[in-house]
Fold this sequence. Notes:
Elements: H1 6-29, H2 35-55, H3 65-87
Amino acid sequence: MTIINPTSRFSALLHAIGADLTTLAQQLDAGEITQAHVEDHLRAYSDQMDEIELRAEEPDTLPTPEEMRQQVTREAQGYATARARDED
């Protein structure tokens, strides 16, 4: 069994979230993405942060930063699809 340092796993997720949000802000400022795209990702990150908070007591259940990013991407795409459907 692998022992996971809870602080480093949690810290890695926080660093990943910070880096991803910074990238979104830079892309928005550069006109590469729309505000709606950012809003979809913010909702998805909010969902993931709620999940991380619930699982923080059991660090071996926390996702890796890459798993979290993949989940955020899936959720953001779902939000974008729902928004497009609502706009029709």
